[in-house]
Amino acid sequence: MSFEDLQKTWQSHNPGATVTLDADLLLKEVRRNQHHFWSMIFWRDAREVGVCFLMALFFVYCAARTHDWTPYLIVLACCAVGGFMIVDRVLERRKQPVLNEALKDCIESSLRQVNHQIWLLRNVLWWYLSPFAAGLGISGAIAMWRARHAGLAVTSLAVYLLVLAVIYWGIYQLNQYAVRKTLEPRRQELQDLVAGLEQN
User: Fold this and answer.
1) Cα dist. 190→107, 129, 175 in Å?
2) What's the total number of domains in the chain?
3) What pTM did the predictor assign?
């Protein structure tokens, strides 16, 4: 087909024509996207829980080696974060849709999952970063108190708080970027699909 033929075909196209979609094809595409999203979230959570487990083992080793109880505070923080992620995953798994649900139900289920991930990442400061900050802060404060040198303790505390604030700010901003770049556009697409289905 020559360029002129393509141009004639394009110009003869009716701009007011509506496009109809096969509902089964759209359902398959939504399910495929949903499965990909769930898989991505699962592996992200598995990595996070794995890191928490390894960190807990490392700090148990440190506590046993130094005969000090303060590293157990960080172990407790690791267990709290890892436990939260496992419980959250189990609760979300129970809300997972059945495979034979309707297109609208499947889209709404995907939308609910995306909204939940947005909530998790927007609140990462409370459920993820705060337990570690508490464990590290108390451990650091006790270590500084044991040093019995006021100038060193104050300087160390100031440096610790500054480094922690920079790291936490970076982690928080990275999570908010993921929300803006990935999750909010996905949510908007799903909301548009639901709105389009409700109009038909």
Assistant:
1) 6, 30, 21
2) 1
3) 0.76
